[in-house]
Every structure is written in C-alpha cells, then in structure tokens.
C-alpha cells in the first residue's frame, strides 16, 4: 500500500514536471512576466549618428540607373527570345502578338481527323470553343490554335492515351513550334511519380493543365484549370447548393473528409495523416485503404478500423452538411473533390502544397478557400474554428459565386481560359482583379466596353458611384412612311417631357443619316428640347451598342407604345434603385409545362412576371454591348429567325447575368400590346403562330444557355401613395391612377 | 474567445504515462529523466540569455562606428546560389512560426556588425540610412521579437540594398556565418538595386541559398512567385520633397517623360510621339548648362526650358516609367507621389507588391513593342477612370511607397499572409483608398439568392403585459401560410407569462423566451429559436394586417432578402431652418424607413444589431426606450447601401411607434425625440446611410381590373 502511494505520488510529480518541461515556455512567460517587462525589449538601437548615415544610393545613381548605352532594347529583346524558350516561355518571348492584331482574338480548332479517337471531355472542350464568339474556321485569321488531338489524358497506362503525338504534331503545317497554340491537359505523368511529363514536346505552346505545380507553371503564360469529370455539363450546369445564408452556419459538421488513402507512394503522406484530426463529433475525417488491386499488401494496422468507419458515412451527406471540406492532394495535386466542395458551398480547405490554383491569374482564392499547408495539418481544426461566422458566410457565398461564374460547365471553364489569355494581349484593356472577383464575374464584364467600373451596372454600391441622372430614349420605328406618324410624335413629346431625358434616338428604316442635333428638317421636331438623333436602319439590331447612347440608362420604346411623362419619370426613378435590372411596363411570364415537358410562355394577365417587354423598358446601356458582343452571332441569328424574339433574349441574358427577376412598374392603363406579342382573338391564326414561335424561341434559348435563366417575381412597384385615400394634391404621380 | 486561448502543440499530442505499471526502476528512470530535463530547461531558460547578443544591446547611445568587427577568413563558406525552385512549402520552415492566436509572425533582427576581410578591408558600408530606417521600423512593429529562439523570420543587418555598394563573395560569406543561417532558411534579404554591369541581373547576385528576397526590379524569370516579394525602389526624394496631393482631373500635359538616362532608342520613339502630338507631350532630359550649386537631380530641361523635379510631374496626367538598365526605377515612386498615372513600359517587370496590389487600377502597362501606340491607347481611357487612377496612384504611394517603414511593413505583411492565409488581409483592404472604403459598402448578403419559400419565416412578438392584444396578434399571424414558428419575447420581469393552457392553439410551434431585463434590443436578439432566415418583427398590438398582406410581405422579402421589408413607412428630411435632420410620419410620396412594428428582415441583421452596432447606439436605445427601429433602419442601410421596401397601401395604424410610450397618442415630444434619434445616429455612423425612394411594392395585379378571386393576394388594403 505504502509503496503504491509512493509510486502514485512519484508519477504525479513526474507528470507535473513533464508538463513543466513541455509547457515550460508558457509557464516561464507567466512566471517571469513582470521581470521581463522591467527589462526593456531590446530594440534596434537608435544610433547617435543615424542622421549622418549615407543613402543606399546617391540620387544621381538612382536617376541615371547604370549605363543604358550598353544594350539597346531591341537587341535585348532579341537576346531574350533565344534565351527564354520552352520551359521559360513568357508571352513576350513565345507568343506572336502580331497574329492577333488584324482580326482580333480569334481561335481556330484543327479539323477532326478520321480515325482519331477523341474523348468525350475533349470533344466538349472543342465544342465549347466552337460555340464561343471567338471561334474562326479560317486559320489565316486565327490568333490562337487548338489541336484536334486529344491531349487530356497523358497517363500512358490509360486507355485514352494517344500515342505518337510528337510525330503527328510535326506533320501539322500550322504547328510552328507550338507558337500561339493552346494545349489542354487534365492528367499528366503516371504511376509512381505522376510527374508533369506529357509524353510529347509542347514547344512554345501555352499549356492549360489541371493539377499544375507552381514550379513548372510558367507565370503569365500557362493557365491552371480545374480537374473536372467527364460528366461535367457542357453548358449551363447545376447551380450551387447554398440556398440560405445563416449565421452562424447551421451545419452539422465543421470539417469533413472522406476518401482513399494510398498507404505508399506520392501523396500518401498527407492522406495517411488525416485520421489524426478525426474527432467523431464535428470533425469527420475518414479514409479507406481499399485502393487499387493489391492494397492488402501495403495495409497497415489502422486499415481495418478505418475501413469500417469509412462505410458508416455517406460522402454526399457529409458534403451537404459540413461547413468546411478538406481537399487534400491525391496522387496529383488537384482532385475532383475541389469542384465538388465548391459547388456544395463547403469551404475547401486545401492541403496540396505547391498547387497552382485554378485560374489563379484571375481568381483571388483567399476569398473562397482556406489554403492550408500539408505540413500543418494538425493546426487546421483550430484555424477553421477561429474563422468568424460572418467570414464563413462570406466564404460560402463566394464559393457559390465562383462556381457559378467560372466552373459549373465546360463552357465556362474553357471560356475563362480564353478570356485570361485574351486579357494578356492588351494589358490596358483587360479586367482588373476586382472585376474577376466580384459579381457577376469576369466572363460577363467586357473590358472592350469600358475598363471603368462606373460604366457597368454592377458596381455602383461597391464603389460608391451612382447611375447617371439622365436617360436616352430609343424608339424603334419600322413603319415605311417618310414622315412620322401621330403616335410617334405623341410618344416623343411624352418622353422628352421628362425632366430626366437626355436625348431621344430612333432607329428608322427609311432614314439613313444620323444627326445629333434636333433635325429641324423633320416636321414638328424642331421644338424637341433634348437632342434627337436618328440612327441608321438595322432591322433586328435594336440592341446594337449605338455610339449615340451616352447615358447609363436607355429607355427602349416601340413606335406604337403609348406612355405618359409621369409614367416615364416614375419608372426612371425606380430604375435608379435597380440599375442592373430591366424595369418596364408590359410584362409576360414563363412557366414549366409538365404535360408537354417544355417551357411555356404566356402573355395573359398573371400573378407573376418574368419578362418585361422591351417595347417600354428601362435598362442599362451596357446590356446593348453585352447583347451584341457577348452572345455569339449564331445565337442572334437564331433569334432573328424566330419571329424577332430578341426581347426575350434580352430578358434571358439580363436574368442570366443578375440571377434576379425584372421589375414591373405602374402603368396608367392597360398597355397597348405590341401587335405581335399577344394571341389576340382578332389576330387569329397569325397571332397564335407568332405566339408559338415565341414559345419555341424561349425553349431554344433555355437549351442554348443550358438552363432557364428567367426568374419570376410576384410584385409590381407603385408610387408610395398609389391609390391611397389621400388628396390627389398630395400625390406626386396622380396621373398614374387615372 | 475560445480561439484566442487555444494552445496548440505542433509536435503532436503529448504522451501521458500509464499508472498501472509497478516497476520501480521504470519510475525512477522516468523521474531522473524528467529531473534532468527540468534542469536542462532551467539552465537554458534562466541563464543569462544566449552569448551572442546580450552585450551588444545594452548600451543605447552608440555610434554605428562602434559596432563589433568580424573578420571573415578567405576560406569561410559561401552559400549556394539562390535556388530558383524555392517555394514556401519547399524552402521555408513553417514550424518555426507555429500557431498563434494573433496570427502574427515573429521577426528577429541580427545585431549590427562590421565585416572585414582577411586584410581588414571593409566588405561593404556598414549600413545605409535607408536600411537603418527599415530595421528600425521592423523593430518598432508588432512583428518584432528580440528572442532568436521564437523567431519565425530572420532579418540580417547586413545591408544589401544596393548591389553596387558591396563585395559579392564576401557579403555572401558574411551571410553564411550568421548564427541561424542554416542555408538561409527563413532569412529575408532586402535589395533594391540588383545586378551590375554589363548584364544587370534582375535579382541580387549575392549567393543566398534559400533566403527569401524582397527585391526591387524582379523579372518574371528571377521572381519566385509566392516566395520572393517584389518591392519598390525607394526614392529618397520622397522624404525631401513634400508634394501636396492634387485633386484629380485634367492637367497641363497629357504625357510626360522625366527620366534622364533613357536609351537613345527609347528617346527617339518618345520624341516621335512628341512630334506627332505636339504640346500635350513633354519629353524632359537632364540639363546641360546648370549653374553650380544647383543639384542636377532636382532639375529637368526641355530645350531651354528648365523645370523643377519632381514638381513637374504634377503637371501631367500620365508619366512614362521606362525600364533603364534595371527594371525597377525609383522614378515610379516619384510619379505616384505626384498623383500622375504611371505608364509602365518594361516588359516582364514584376511590379512592386504585385502579389497584393491591383496595378491595373493605378497604372497603364504597355508592352515595349506598342510604344508607338501609346498616345492612342491612353486617349482611349475614360476620363472618370483616369481620375480614379490618379487617386489610386497617390494612395499606393502613401500606403506602400512613401517611407522605408511602409515598404518594410508591407513586405512583412505579405509574408505573414502566406503563413496565416485564413487571417490574410483582403484585396479591398490592400487596394481601396480610404475615400472608397468610406463611400462603398460591402453587402454581407451579396449573393443573389431567392430563399426557398418552403423555409417560411419566424414571427417574433415583443410583449410586456398586454396579453389580450398579444393573443389576438398570435391568432392573426398564425393564419399566414408561410409562418413556421412564433416566438414571443416576454419582456416583463415582474410578471410571469400566462400558463401554457391559456395560450391560443396554433398550428406552428410557439415558444416564449423570458428576458433578464426589459430592453428594446431584446426584440433584435439572434435567438437560437429562430431557425429561418426570415424574421417578422411584429408588435403585440398590430392586428390590422391581413393574412394576405403578411404573406405577400414575406414573398417580397424573398425577392429582397437583404432589405428591410415593412408596412408603415417613414421618411427623414433635411430641415433647412434648423440645419438638421427631421423625422416625418405624414403621408409623403417618399419613404426611407419602415417601422419594425411590422417588418420582415434577415436574421443576419439581428446578429449585426446585437454585436456590431456602431458606437453606443444600442445602449442609448435601451436607455431611452425608443428608436430601436430607426437604429435597425440605419444599420441595414449602412451595410447594404440599399433602400427599404415598403409593401402594400398605407393604412391607419394605431400609432405603431407609440408602444414605447404606451397608449399616449402621437404627440409633439415623440416626434421631436424621433428626430433627435436620426441626428444622433447620423453622427455616430458618420454619414446618412438612409436611402429615399418613391416606390412601394404591391402584388402584380393590385387594383387591376381583373377578377379578385384569380389574384394571389386579393385581400390587400381592405382593413
């Protein structure tokens, strides 16, 4: 008994001392805190003669900067060109800018050769390029070339490995040492090293590759792309899984991982250690050893237990219910897990040292992911616990923004790659990092329109701007008469009566000159105070980015629209609150028709709306540019062919950009429907054909976008005192109630 | 709080000895090991601190010339050349930095020594003025530690700012003999003028093995992305000349070139530009016939005209910064200081702090080959953007260029952000000038989401003792289809809420929370019981809202989840006579607030109200028992920059704002008090965040000539 007590006492003492030993640092700080305070911190000395010290370089030397007469810039550039090749390529040494000058940024894809197997994923990539507005069938025009040889999988053990690429490439007359070529790759190298070896010489070609490592990445030249599966949708893509913003995050788990571990070989270190942070409560980290055929040979002592635990949780369930997801390296640096976590709004915690993150040239990953270090795995739980709930919410929303803007479809991944390269061609006309990392994302912001944030409808609040206080009215006139009809005159008068009207423009089919002053030659118009401009006829192109439109707001009108000045004024005041949306009068809506399995379209009076007709609507002038430049010509032709449903396309486009419904404002009386838009009984069959064409159009657009971007709204905005029982004299817009 | 106190052992979990073993020897051995360990620790910790530094630091007032001299034998080791493949995860020992609650790295500075070679000749100047300033700044910063054992980053006091001022091999030897050198791991060198004739390398030529380099003038080939830091070349003129900030706008010249040592080829191109575009382009050169005593560096000439430098930079919109022999140019700093937009023509140059600064917002980068097109490129930039770039350029100078201190701290912060990425400074904090930070908002609910209708909303009723009226409200609200839970906040401490059996029976859960104090802010507490995003705040006397109106209000909130969506609207006005804000509850054509006696909003704002309300507003509201709704309107508008949404027509509310003064009718003192609130809050927020709008939301078919029974919300405006 006695001895036992003594032992226990001794053990106690020992463990106390152990504690002191390990925690010595903290204890020491605690115990000697006062002592150390008295002894001042030993700072860098204030030298008595510090003001007399000499400068690191005398001003002459700084301004003269060596002897520049040595090497002329041209010679120096020439010497770079030979020195910095292949693995040291940069745009200025390996890319021929002159090819892009004449025709702009055009992309040529090599024609498919017969008997050349192309994987599903690569054909998706090729078709994304062919669908893009940059595609050209003419190699003479091209600035960038894409091979038809499938280079995605360069693991020579894989079934999709294409042999003898080197020989084939050398046979291409356009190859030119790889200059101005873009090569896509998802997998490189093979077991056991999984190196960056592609199995052929890419020469001076730009490499867009998944799992890029920082050391072989040629900054400003290569592009790192995410790893995506062969089931990744071609266009549209599923939306993210974040449906509600809650603070603190209402998720069951804090941090999860479920995946294989490799036991041996490259990448196994990190994954084999993941079980250390598993606590069975809010941190779930599960690994299975079942990997490959002969895993049992390498099996370690934990394997059996791990394999059992592994089966107890479902990957999808974990993904849905966790705030953070560990995304460790696999054999290669990137994994499918990364995009899966991003879509699930499960904040990726990256454990993949030396990975050049996807599109890192554009995307600020610090806003959407926690970039951990493989070496500090054990710090991860405490680090993520310390992230404030508001920041978690911001992270979650940012994952969704990035997913939706750049990753949700093959189209987006490929187009982002192209835009990044295009931005390099003229640095002064490129997107700043801010544009890439704020809604609605870089793909939807065209630097060719402007590089000034205030010119776009998206950044007013973020940057403390406000939209201009004037608008331009754009009236489309299709009637053949050489003179203006009464309704148009009335409309022009009503619109120009608005205090906010800056100018009125009309696209007319019979007048071809454009003048910016009130054209006095036209009857009755000399009195119009805002300048009137007549634009040349472009039948279906009402949404061209007309030079004459200088205001942020455009009021788009048809010649037979009838509006009063106060309607215009009120609608404009509403638009200033919602400058990124379409704000207008007559509306229509879409719905899913389960019987026919397609989208339906109705112009009847309903409790909802999702389309505002551009026969009378305010929107931002940027949408003209987006409509004309962003949408590929093929799509616009399609729309022209289908009964001029360009107004539906405009609504679909704006909804795809904003993800929000348009806004309907008060109308004085029932708006006179544009003759083609309603299946009016009087119009009979012609009307209903029109109607079904518009329905077709809606379905084709949904197909082209890959989803239905339109969003429905249940509200209308009225003046604050609309139809309230107060004196008319108190009301600002009394005429709207008549 | 939990995080700040959390201690983590990077070595992994400590072993705890098991109690059951009975072997005496085991314990004795263990005990003696521990004892020895203790003694060793004690020796180490209580001993006068390491031999290397203590004596050097004790004397405060000393001259640079008195520092100890170290002789470097000719055969002392030289480090390897810089390793181009180094990255943080390969060459940096992150274990030295550890996990700490402040997420700050610790930086140690070696004490100053004078290095001489075998023959007693100096290896370099002991220390330059700028390097001394830089080290002083680090030493005064919160990164600094004087304990070499706890340091994560080491800064040698060997001055390598200017490669021309040092002997390469001997400097390298001096580096190698530093006490913690260890192949340069975690060592940081600062260099501004790299390379030397004839080929002018773009990185410091001193062999430095794995040391990080903060260098001015990196090219893309020498810069190790994510490892090195690109820093500016400091211009000593920054300290000498005070250029007051000039407002943005057009200036006398459009393009100005002020560099003296341009290569003739460049100068020819610039002169061609001038010939083409005349007066708006000014190409300056050094002055040839200056009288004695005038410093040549402070003058520039064009033909016979003499200009003061750097003042002349303020006369131009764009200033050309061309590469010289080196890529990094001190003129960049002068140009930024003058608020002139730099036009950077230096292919493959890594701009200063490019890891964090968005140079596209402050400069124009033009490829060398496109120099002839410079004029048209610059002309195509919108005037408003030029003004912003001017402001941005000046801000970059003020924040990151103006002193060696600014350069040092930005460099350390960048390295710090790599080591603690989850605590890194954001893009906005690095890049937005103070003016933008003030005028802009960053909406915490920025993602355009329309929350699913199925989620429903939680009604929160604040009540004191009006049980009868409360029960009527509960009954009315419970008829709304999307109600998912009802929460009664019982704010009366002297009286118990009615027994369970007395409460109305409703179809959704009803919870009563009792509060510890009768405070108005209890209404906005983020109770755990609120499980939906949408909260309906409703007073216990609001019985005039129909079920359709409430349901419609919820639908409107779903379309505007980041706004306050409410029923009675109010307005603030500027009273020109009194020169202050005034509260208005009359029938106006505009609204800027909604009363929270009946309003939908996101639960996130409860969180903000309770924990992030600026100043003393929260206490003020609780003390005065008034204006909690105005405070909420201010808070939401301030953080989102958006207006409220008023729904449905105006109706005669039974003075919804009178609950605080219980029953008394709307009177003059009440209005005065509300006006005071607005003025008080506007001064606390430092701005008037409320937005005035002219619209309200009604159902699509409201008052339209359409069968009522086909409308989704027929019963609106009826009571």
Automatic annotation (TrEMBL), chain A:
Q: Which InterPro entries match?
A: Exostosin, Exostosin_GT47, GT64_dom, Nucleotide-diphossugar_trans
Keyword annotations of the record: Disulfide bond, Endoplasmic reticulum, Glycoprotein, Glycosyltransferase, Membrane, Signal-anchor, Transferase, Transmembrane, Transmembrane helix
Which GO terms of type biological process are on file?
heparan sulfate proteoglycan biosynthetic process
Domain (Glycosyl transferase): give its ranges.
471-722
Q: Which GO terms describe its molecular function?
A: glycosyltransferase activity
Gene Ontology cellular component list? endoplasmic reticulum membrane
Endpoints of the signal sequence: none
Family affiliation: Belongs to the glycosyltransferase 47 family.
Record protein name field: EXT1C protein
Tell me what organism the protein belongs to: Illadopsis cleaveri
Q: Which gene encodes it?
A: Ext1c
UniProtKB/TrEMBL annotation, chain B:
- Domain (Exostosin GT47): residue spans on this chain: 102-381
Protein's job: Glycosyltransferase forming with EXT1 the heterodimeric heparan sulfate polymerase which catalyzes the elongation of the heparan sulfate glycan backbone. Glycan backbone extension consists in the alternating transfer of (1->4)-beta-D-GlcA and (1->4)-alpha-D-GlcNAc residues from their respective UDP-sugar donors.
- Family listed: Belongs to the glycosyltransferase 47 family.
Q: Provide the Gene Ontology terms for cellular component.
A: endoplasmic reticulum membrane; Golgi apparatus
According to the record, the segments passing through the membrane are: 25-47
Ranges where the Glycosyl transferase domain occurs: 457-702
The UniProt entry's coiled-coil ranges are none
Record membrane topology? Single-pass type II membrane protein
What name appears for this protein in its UniProt entry?
A: Exostosin-2
GO BP field? heparan sulfate proteoglycan biosynthetic process
Quaternary structure (record): Part of the heparan sulfate polymerase, a dimeric complex composed of EXT1 and EXT2. Could also form homooligomeric complexes. Interacts with NDST1. Interacts with GALNT5.
Assign the protein's first listed, main location to one coarse class.
endoplasmic reticulum
The reaction(s) catalysed by this protein are:
3-O-{[(1->4)-beta-D-GlcA-(1->4)-alpha-D-GlcNAc](n)-(1->4)-beta-D-GlcA-(1->3)-beta-D-Gal-(1->3)-beta-D-Gal-(1->4)-beta-D-Xyl}-L-seryl-[protein] + UDP-N-acetyl-alpha-D-glucosamine = 3-O-{alpha-D-GlcNAc-[(1->4)-beta-D-GlcA-(1->4)-alpha-D-GlcNAc](n)-(1->4)-beta-D-GlcA-(1->3)-beta-D-Gal-(1->3)-beta-D-Gal-(1->4)-beta-D-Xyl}-L-seryl-[protein] + UDP + H(+)
> Per its UniProt record, what Pfam families does this chain match?
Exostosin_GT47, Glyco_transf_64
Q: Which organism encodes this protein?
A: Illadopsis cleaveri
Q: Where in the cell is it found?
A: Endoplasmic reticulum membrane; Golgi apparatus, cis-Golgi network membrane
